[in-house]
């Protein structure tokens, strides 16, 4: 019996797949922390024969080598991907077989130059039952084509146009199993909350397939793209060379206030995972607020330079929080974490060290009263415009643009929900700029009062 297990990593908006046939399997586009899945397969008596990569990932560190080290699986990937490690190169129409299924490579450049999709054939069937589309055809959209740089964007957009039309020729019932989905910056705009679809459904509803003119398609691909996180620049080189094999999740060690103080003095960045109100009321000097939820690591990737030494301040239970934070950070290559502050801010204060705070507000307190106030809008994009007179700086750009902000008056930070506004406020507070964070509500709540 054949089955496809769908595994979503909500923090990155990505999905991995386990294709099982009998007691053998192939794992498609695995995350780095696939150790639990490997153990589950072992417990079920399922052997992972192959790890399939659709493309060289720009948004996370691949788990292919972790899985190979644990299981002996063969890593298979696009023939045009310049991987520096041993792998099975899959060109157009190349096949692998295991159990009762055959998987056939289909070169689908566009999202990246080497991008390859994989058709799944059950038994002796002549029509594919599924296709792993990676970053080509998504649910309601397609993968962006600008990740290789401006010099290649138009060329890849034209390749994506041809790729999508080729995929649209597959039978209506073919399951479409993309890697990127809702929450992924690899998508070229909004995508459906659904993780999987069918070719027939996409042909009827996906606007990228409705556009029959190549020039119109390319123009649409080249405009209106939201910025992608800065850490993306490091992912592809790591994945091409082959990330280090960890063999399991590392354990973060508890640190004393004295050690944390020394690390911070040596250039480490303190990241606080408490909720926004708790952070605003009391936090370590120089620390950044990043609530420990599904978006924790992606927010770190927006504002903390890649490779920076990290120290964490975590909510209780700190051990569980440290495990979750470390897994998320490992997925995007932030491996340089020294540990977490044992006892949190209470231990810091008990050791006689100072804490900082800044005032907060709800959006209702700002409604109709923005005149004369310095308001900073840190949303990544402004689909409906913004409030007149406000300064718009996307959060990802803020660390290098702090010099544009006045230091002689208070700045109100604003986004859509308060999440980014609080991170921005912590960056201003770290820089010694007077700040008030709008931690509840945001721009849309204020637009009716403009």
Report mean pLDDT, rounded to a whole number: 94
Backbone CA Rg: 23 Å
Shape: globular
User: Can you identify the CATH class of the largest domain?
Assistant: Alpha Beta
Strands of the biggest beta sheet: in what spatial order?
Answer: 1-2-3-4-5-6
- Give the structural class: alpha/beta
CATH A-level architecture of the largest domain: 4-Layer Sandwich
CATH fold node name of the largest domain: Metallo-beta-lactamase, Chain A
Level of helix content? Answer: 25-40%
What's the assembly state of these chains? single chain
Please give the count of helices.
Answer: 15
Total count of domains = 3
Q: Please identify which CATH superfamily of the largest domain we are dealing with.
A: Ribonuclease Z/Hydroxyacylglutathione hydrolase-like
Low-confidence stretches: none
| Residues in β-strands, percent | 15-25%
State the end-to-end distance. Answer: 60 Å
Q: What does the main sheet amount to?
A: 6 strands, mixed
Q: Let me know the number of strands.
A: 22
């Amino acid at each position: 019996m054949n089955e496809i297990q769908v595994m979503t990593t909500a923090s990155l908006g990505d999905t991995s797949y386990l294709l099982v046939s009998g007691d053998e399997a192939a794992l498609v586009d695995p995350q780095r922390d696939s150790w639990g899945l490997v153990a589950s397969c072992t417990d079920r008596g399922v052997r992972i024969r192959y790890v399939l990569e659709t493309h060289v990932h720009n948004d996370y560190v691949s788990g292919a080598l972790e899985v190979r080290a644990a299981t002996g699986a063969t890593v298979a990937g696009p023939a045009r991907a310049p991987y520096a490690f041993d792998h099975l190169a899959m060109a157009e129409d190349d096949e692998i077989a295991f159990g009762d299924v055959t998987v056939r490579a289909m070169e689908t450049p566009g999202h990246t130059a080497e991008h390859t999709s994989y058709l799944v054939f059950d038994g002796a069937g002549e029509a594919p039952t599924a296709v792993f589309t990676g970053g080509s055809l998504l649910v309601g959209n397609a993968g962006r084509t600008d990740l290789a740089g401006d010099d290649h964007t138009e060329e890849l957009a034209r390749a994506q146009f041809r790729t999508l039309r080729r995929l649209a020729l597959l039978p209506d019932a073919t399951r479409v199993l993309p890697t990127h989905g809702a929450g992924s910056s690899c998508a070229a705009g909004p995508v459906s909350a659904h993780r999987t679809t069918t070719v027939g459904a996409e042909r009827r509803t996906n606007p990228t397939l409705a556009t029959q003119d190549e020039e119109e398609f390319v123009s649409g691909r080249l405009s209106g793209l939201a910025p992608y996180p800065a850490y993306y620049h490091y992912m592809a080189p790591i994945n091409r060379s082959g990330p280090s094999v960890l063999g399991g999740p590392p354990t973060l060690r508890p640190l004393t206030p004295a050690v944390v103080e020394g690390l911070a003095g040596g250039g480490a960045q303190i990241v606080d995972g408490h909720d926004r109100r708790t952070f605003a009321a009391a936090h370590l000097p120089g620390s950044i607020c990043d609530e420990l939820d599904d978006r924790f690591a992606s927010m770190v990737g927006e504002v903390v330079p890649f490779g920076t030494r990290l120290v964490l301040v975590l909510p209780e239970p700190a051990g569980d929080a440290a495990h979750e934070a470390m897994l998320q950070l490992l997925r995007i290559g932030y491996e340089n974490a020294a540990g977490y502050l044992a006892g949190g801010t209470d231990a810091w204060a008990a050791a006689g060290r100072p804490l900082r705070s800044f005032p907060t507000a709800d959006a209702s307190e700002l409604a109709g009263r923005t005149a004369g106030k310095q308001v900073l809008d840190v949303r990544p994009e402004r689909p409906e415009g913004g409030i007149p007179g406000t300064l718009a700086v996307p959060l990802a750009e803020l660390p290098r643009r702090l010099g544009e902000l006045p230091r002689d008056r208070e700045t109100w930070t604003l986004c859509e929900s308060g999440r980014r506004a609080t991170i921005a406020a912590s960056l201003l507070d770290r820089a010694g700029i007077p700040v008030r964070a709008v931690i509840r509500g945001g721009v849309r709540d204020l637009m009716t009062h403009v």
